Amino acid sequence: MLAKLKLFFEAPKQTFSAEEQTQHLNLAAASLLLEVVMADDNMSTAEVNILPELLTSHLGLSVNDVQALIADASLSQKNSTSLYEFTQAINNHFDITQKQQLILAMWRLAYADGHLCQYEDQMIRRTSDLLHLRHSELIQMRNLAIETQQRS
């Protein structure tokens, strides 16, 4: 799967079907979410519970598809050398709203256990920079995640 993902990032857009592009973009997004989960080397129960929910709601996948995606993303995330390989594909295919929603999901994961680790914060900020989002957009998404957390 990792070889396919790398091929997708390096190949021109037209060499893949729409379904293949969607699968690769979902994998890139899921891998970025896992980067947040693993930033503090501790996957809390709250993070384990919210990750499938975020993937289901943001990517429109079934529960079975989400479990397979998490497994693939975990392997991809472990074998990646930088965030750039994930953010490059997202920059090429996501619009500004989709990028903001991804950052919002990352913030929600970071706050899921009630504690924001400095490494989670750094990961999200770095990803936001690589996605070419403004600082104000980053803060707006963080504030939305905090509001959501407080309502739960």
TrEMBL record:
Co-chaperone DjlA N-terminal domain residues: 27-143
CDD domains: terB_like_2
Top-level taxon of origin: Bacteria
Protein name, UniProt field: TerB family tellurite resistance protein
Organism: Shewanella youngdeokensis
